[in-house]
Amino acid sequence: MIELDGVPELIDPVMVAAFEGWNDAGDAASTAVAHLDREWKGEVFAALDAEDYYDFQVNRPTVWLDGGVRKITWPTTRLSVVRVGGDKPRDLVLVRGIEPSMRWRSFCNEILGFAHELGVEMVVVLGALLGDTPHTRPVPVSGVTSDADLARTMDLEETRYEGPTGIVGILQEACTHAGVPAVSLWAAVPHYVSQPPNPKATLALLNRLEDLLGLRIPLGELPEDARAWQVGVDQLASEDSEVAEYVQTLEEARDTAELPEASGEAIAREFERYLRRRDPGPGPGQPSGGHATESGEATYLRDTSSGRTRPPKPVRPETGPGPVSGPGTGRPGGPGTGRPTPGGPDERAAGGEPEQPSGDGPDEDTDNGPDGPDSPSRD
Fold first, then answer.
1. Helix pair angle (222-238, 241-257), 10° resolution
2. Do the Cβ atoms of 98 and 168 come closer than 8 Å?
3. Which of 13, 40, 182, 317 could cross-link with 175 by S-S, CB 3.0 to 4.6 Å?
4. In which element (H, E) is residue 14 found?
5. CA dist list (Å): 160 to 27, 90, 372
6. Which residues contact 378 (CB under 8 A, 6 or more apart)?
7. DSSP 259
8. Which residue(s) pair with 292 in the sheet?
9. Where are the alpha helices (DSSP H) in 279-330?
């Protein structure tokens, strides 16, 4: 039984979810939801029981000191609410956690139970995958859905993927069967510089979410971080002739494949985003995040478990143009994960997903691998 006594009535709520792990190359998706939670001061109102869904030998709890007192943080999935102020305020229900180890159907049913009780109108799941995309070009972000009407009205792709999937694919299909409109947004991360963080991919996901929901998202230092990240990768690529040649090959393939992107529709999207950013945002007295009582006190606890990190300098490739993963990160494609990394245009990115089509990224429901789209270089 889901009880939400501490949550006020929401305004046109949309659920935005992301999960660390297989669906989250470069931590781009989970960082995007963490950014929304931080910028709009999200208030946690629920956390799923960790013992129901996680294998603690895979996702271990962490011990930390709070004023000399040892405490334990368990891997779980938390839900928070933020209110987006402005002329037409609305609420976002943010779901952020780790891909569960077990009981995926029960996990999705519990998430949908919250969505139903809160009156969620649509679910947007963010993901990131490894692909043959150059770091020097805009990050490809695709929107996919299983709803034909939604695909037509919101300019999305209908998913046609067949094969292994992750929690993003399972949650999207669970929403479809429950009659809840659902969309997945996927960012393609260069496989040769896959270690987190990737602020450029995070920024691309937030921009696409803005377009989808018609919101103005405060970006903070993300644009600066994205530029610093790209400069760092540029420097590393310039120091290795093989990597530089490989990046140039990807650039040529991408530019050829995406000539249609210089269309009136693409220009219009950029102009609409520019106009949103010119808006002054919430005025004095308007809520910019979270929910409060008349006295100004929050009605539920604040989540302080997340923190912002600046991007480290990317790890230099050791084997030429092949993929690079940070040692000991435990991230997709990294050493010790048990997952293969792409070695070239004939291999499937991020653990054996279908090849990417030329275009803007995944045309299917993907999970940083099995649902991954074809790379622009594989036409």
1. 120
2. no
3. 182
4. strand 14-20
5. 25, 32, 11
6. 132, 345, 355, 356, 357, 358
7. G
8. 298
9. none
Residue with tokens 């993901």: 127
| Residue whose tokens read 């938390």 | 78
Position of tokens 């600066």?
224
CA distance 127 to 147: 18
End-to-end CA distance of the chain: 50
Other beta carbons within 10 Å of 6: 14
Q: Which pair of tokens denotes residue 264?
A: 């009136």
Output the CA torsion sign for 106, 111, 112, 113: positive
Nearest 10 degrees: Cα torsion 28, 33, 34, 35: 90
CB 167, CB 104: distance < 8 Å? yes
The one-letter amino acid at 27: D
pTM: 0.69
pLDDT digits (tens, 9 = 90+) for 322-372: 344 333 333 333 333 333 333 333 333 333 333 343 444 444 444 444 444
Q: Taking the mean position of all CA atoms in its chain, how far away is CA 318?
A: 28
Distance CA(166)–CA(172), nearest Å, equals 10
Amino acid 286 reads Q
Beta bridge mates, 93? 15, 81
Only one residue has tokens 């271990």, namely 60
Can you tell me the distance from the alpha carbon of 71 to that of 285, in angstroms, rounded to the nearest whole number?
37
What is the rounded CA–CA span in Å between residue 296 and residue 291? 9
- In the sheet that holds 43-47, the strands lie side by side as 43-47, 78-84, 90-98, 14-20, 122-131, 182-190, 141-145, 157-158
Predicted confidence (pLDDT) per residue in 94-137, tens digit? 999 999 999 999 999 999 999 999 999 999 999 999 988 889 88
